[in-house]
């Protein structure tokens, strides 16, 4: 199994960068893949993944597990996910604190639930089941959200911590998501970070977001990381003492060297507390 | 491992159903631009969301509603670039919206999103235009050649003489990634012009063409076929064994064409099997694709 050092800085593996990676073999600490892109029958993605694995550690990040869905867990999906964990020797796998399907209809989006004790317990039980089945640690990612529910009994950070505590999984803390949700819902992102149990953080994400004309922030991954998010990242580093860092970019993807340089800016903010 | 039948908390399934229904609400196209139909969202879902500052629950649902459609329409635009370019994005998005409204995704994998799109287009009263249907069929074939699974291939070199004899009378099953297409315009040329050279304005010319679109190694490839070869392959695809397919074709050909068919057939068959277009057949005495040693 691969080990990802606590100070590692990685990038999301994206198709427009394959040519550069396979010709230049740049020095990168690790890559993260979107698991669903490698779980189908197409051989080319797997062939490219094998080439990446020959040189780099790879971790898995999913978008379709739907751990908070009222639909039953999809074991055909989990079996494919497990096969991919074996292929990549990933030390952990991650997905979001969200639902994506309802009554079998998939929305291909990361959708939140009311923050209630009963929902936390339900989700935690499902995480335990998934983690036991896959057989390696699971990291749960916090969402960027654009709507809060009247039914919620607690703040987002409390709900996130509660699910992690009950399930025994790790955090996949997305610092951009903390910032986006803090603006959209009006909470202090530093308070959020200060509530996290840093010894259980498997990895952190950083990314860019987009502001709509009405002030709502969208987690688009199509822009560079904003200064406020880097500052929050620096605060997280002080609180934690280190974690693997991953820059996500999914749209308007710049050339590989430019994106890698942006990811390495993290070093400027990695000042121990 | 024990799989638990877990009952979700009361209200969670309903919340997700109502929220999901709301964010799948199709855009209105009547004003000449995309517009969320906030009034059509579930009252229950809108009421369950906290308003914030000037934003109502419906405004907040609209953020998800927009994201849902932008994401899925973009996926279909990428899967059908020539169709979207030919129709124009405005028309294409209306077609794709109607398709997804009627057949929302039932798979966790976005690559399955186009499943059923050609059939939907063919049945559409507004867009059932032969050229558009042929373009969509062509682009589906490319998608399929990339994503479909591979079955163990037929390898005649591994068959005994008896099994080769049996093969002539057995139906041949094609690989799931192989498509055979007949086009009435230069659609393949227009698609490769768009995808490989960025030629965004296709010039359609009426012209018959016969194509195989397939996977070779890890790559998607395509090959023009002559009409006789295409006809024979189509018969094989319909389940006719090789021997009877040749006999049936010969009935409708003149002497010269029959001679041409019989002369070319061995080299065609060699090409098809070299390209692994057929699945390993179920023949008596065949174990793991190798002739059983007696």
Description:
- Chain A is built from 10 helices and 12 strands.
- In chain A, the strands form 3 sheets. Chain A has an 8-stranded parallel β-barrel, surrounded by 5 helices. In chain A, strands 5-6 form a two-stranded antiparallel sheet. In chain A, strands 10-11 form a two-stranded antiparallel sheet.
- Helices cover 39% and strands 19% of the residues of chain A.
- By secondary structure, chain A is α/β, with parallel strands linked by helices.
- In chain A, α1 links the parallel β1 and β2.
- Chain B is mostly helical and 294 residues long.
- In chain B, α4 packs across α5 and α10 crosses α11.
- The chains are: A alpha/beta (273), B mainly alpha (294).
- The interface between A and B is large, with 53 and 51 residues.
Count of strand segments of chain A: 12
Report the major sheet of chain B.
Answer: 3 strands, antiparallel
Question: How is the largest sheet of chain A built, in terms of strand order?
Answer: 1-2-3-4-7-8-9-12
Content-based structural category of chain A: alpha/beta
Q: What overall form of chain B do the CA principal axes indicate?
A: elongated
SSE ordering of chain B? HHHHHHHHEHEEHHHEE
Structural class of chain B: mainly alpha
Give the topology.
The complex is a heterodimer of chains A (273) and B (294).
Chain A: E1 9-12, H1 18-24, E2 30-34, H2 43-53, E3 58-61, H3 75-88, E4 93-96, E5 99-102, E6 105-111, H4 117-134, E7 138-141, H5 156-167, E8 170-174, H6 175-185, H7 189-194, E9 201-207, E10 210-211, E11 217-218, H8 227-240, E12 245-248, H9 256-264, H10 266-269
Parallel strand pairs in A: 1-2, 1-12, 2-3, 3-4, 4-7, 7-8, 8-9, 9-12
Antiparallel strand pairs in A: 5-6, 10-11
Helix pairs in contact in A: 4-5
Chain B: H1 12-23, H2 43-47, H3 57-79, H4 81-87, H5 89-102, H6 117-123, H7 130-147, H8 161-168, E1 179-185, H9 187-197, E2 206-216, E3 219-224, H10 227-237, H11 242-251, H12 255-274, E4 286-287, E5 290-291
Antiparallel strand pairs in B: 1-2, 2-3, 4-5
